[in-house]
Amino acid sequence: MDCFERAFGKFIRKKTRSLQFPKSFRFPRILSRRLSVCCGAPSHKKYDRIIGQEIDQVNEVKGAEAERRFVNGEDVLPHCDLTVWLRDCKGDITVPIEGDSMGSIPHWLQGNLLRNGPGVLSIGQDQFNHLFDSSAVIHRFSIRKGKVTYQCKFLRSETYRKNVEAQRIVVDEFGTKATPDPCKTIFQRFSAIFSDEMTDNCMISLYPFKDQIFAMGETPVMYRIDPSNIDTIGRVNMQEYVNIVHNSSHPHVEEDGTVYVLGLSVDVTGPKYSIVRFPNTRQGTVEHDVLSDAQIVARVRTRWPFHPGYMHSFGLTPNYYVIIEQPLSVSVPAKLASKLNNEPMSSMLKWYPDQPTIIYVVSRRNDKVVLKYEAEPFFYLHVINQYEEEGHVVIDVCAYKDPKMIHCMLIESLKGAHENPKYANMFRSRPARFVLPLRSEKTTGDLVTLGGTEARAYFSSRGVIRVLPEILCDMGCETPRINYPRYLGRKYRYFYSISADVDLENPGTLIKVDTYTKTYKTWSEPNSFPCEPIFVPTPDGKAEDEGVVLTSVLWGNDDRKVALVILDAKSFTEIARTEFRAPTPVPKCLHGWFTSA
What we know:
Pfam families: RPE65 (PF03055)
Keywords: Iron, Metal-binding, Oxidoreductase
GO molecular function: beta-carotene 15,15'-dioxygenase activity; carotenoid dioxygenase activity; metal ion binding
Largest sheet: 6 strands, antiparallel
Low-confidence stretches: 1-19, 25-45, 184-195
Mean pLDDT: 89
Cofactor: Fe(2+)
Binding site for Fe cation: 250, 312, 382, 591
């Protein structure tokens, strides 16, 4: 075997000399236990780790308290009830239910707050392993003439239908392998290893494409939702229109209705990050019409051909696309190994902590990379906003020092969090601002000439522009939202989020961050857990924060209580709520969209 490994390694190195691999990459054991490919990029271990240092400092203090509680046999997260993620919805609420209202709903607020997220953690006797595997449930809060109703329904995806019919998990999910079909022969089971069937369980987000609303995940399949009753009314596959194998679950929607999606495409020259444009050329009447004019308008080659970066969101300004390539890869060799070793999709994610994050700024005029920048290795899911100012591109993200928070969403991790003194530290994030200089006459020193920021940029010894972020506030922020209709890609001041600090005295906290003053306001209520806040502007409002913030709220001690809470965005105080008593447990959701009546 040693002779084979040496010969195979020599062959691979010769054939892949022009390719780049992460320095720390090793071929999966299914190919060779000891074969290493050393033709990769140089190691980049020496970085000014602003994000990492900020989080480490907080973790040192918070972690010591968690360890003390753990040693004393106390609950390490006494104020956080993570069971809000572990609830099983028992069925559809087909007829909207009424609730008890308090306060005054603005007369101009008419429409539907739609939400998407996990719904059930088991099928028959089979259990899902990760929160992202859970069957999708769509929620609807209908606001009409000062009254609010609530309902929820399971997304009728092909995956959901197959699972329910078989009463077991029959399609692989992110963290869960399908249960083998007992009716298949051993040869049929072996051939199924090489099947490319992928889940269409679109349980992450909801976005408008022209005049239609679609539930999205991270595969090219989307499901059309009727916002008037949240019925599932159509299935579309982007692969029928453009060459992509993966897409981010957070598109961008411009004022004119044009939609941009970041996808991954593969051709004979290798994988590329691809921006797909869906122009608002006509109002769709059939579900596939909204995609018929789709086209790839920009491509960026991945730094490692067999390890494209994991993408969940991206940036869009009037003149640029901004793509952040974090050193968390979707490993192609690991995908092959996962098939042969019967491992879930999550095993394909590989983190390279000694490799930089690369930020690409791509021109929307000629679809070429204008500049690329290096930053410390960090993990992110959500871009907050991005804009151009005085020869710079500014982009804000919810940043983690590494991707351990993905493991925090394992069902067993959620169940054991109250006995895990490291759980809160793994979930720690901070909002970070990067300022990317587009041009500079300087060759030394700080290249950032923009005022009002502590973010920096400089040339490294290799002639690469390295960027150092500014931390926008000392709170963990997630699922961020802005005044999206009016400030997408423009200089902005405020964003709204939920807290990612599960060890706060009140972890169910909503946050309004002022990016000018680096201060924030909060809203919270004991033992309540709000979901992603969505800003709805006042129709004729002038100020950026003139409007309301909508959030759905759950309670840790009552799995059937759910509410729509409305905050005045400027003062960030509650002005109205409607509480409902649901006939089924209501699980916490992820993302949503507000559709006007």
